[in-house]
């Protein structure tokens, strides 16, 4: 299974989603962009997607508040990280938990952990949890990253189902 993520103007991405309506494409937004997220065994129909291999699939992704956590796993540690046992059964203990994906890049070293909950406030609470701290905090991931601190990436994006007021509808 593969995951493809692309982003851009809502006007353009909404047209893509309509054109490929038979595919299971999820739409998300944040304050800057619209996002399309597709899981498939097929090739991507996006022209320049972020492309990943799904390492872990837990739950069913829907159009609900989602956290994308981007982080580096250096190439020499990817196999070890990909086989790390995560206590996935504990995720169901968190209120509003919907789905989790661990995504390995098809090229490069930037992984994505996708967490989905019913509400953003539940994602915020989850980020304070022992599960997150022990498995996905910057400190927990440091053993898989480069010794060169400047080469390490660790950032997150919140994605929402509703289009923010500031996100333009017009074609860019």
From TrEMBL:
<dbReference type="InterPro" id="IPR011008">
    <property type="entry name" value="Dimeric_a/b-barrel"/>
</dbReference>
<protein>
    <recommendedName>
        <fullName>Signal transduction protein TRAP</fullName>
    </recommendedName>
</protein>
């Amino acid at each position: 299974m593969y995951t493809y993520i692309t982003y851009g103007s809502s006007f353009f991405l909404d047209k893509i989603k309509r054109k490929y309506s038979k595919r299971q494409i999820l739409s998300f937004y944040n304050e800057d962009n619209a996002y399309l997220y597709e899981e498939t065994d097929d090739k991507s129909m996006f022209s320049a997607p972020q492309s990943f291999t799904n390492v872990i699939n837990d739950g069913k992704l829907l159009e609900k508040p989602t956290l994308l956590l981007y982080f580096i796993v250096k190439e020499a540690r990817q196999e070890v990280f990909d086989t790390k046992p995560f206590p996935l059964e504990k995720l169901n203990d968190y209120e509003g938990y919907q789905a989790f994906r661990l995504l390995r890049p098809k090229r490069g070293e930037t992984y994505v952990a996708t967490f989905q909950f019913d509400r953003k406030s539940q994602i915020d609470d989850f980020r304070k949890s022992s599960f997150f701290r022990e498995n996905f905090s910057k400190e927990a991931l440091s053993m898989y990253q480069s010794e060169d601190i400047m080469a390490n990436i660790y950032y997150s994006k919140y994605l929402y189902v509703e289009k923010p007021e500031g996100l333009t509808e017009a074609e860019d």
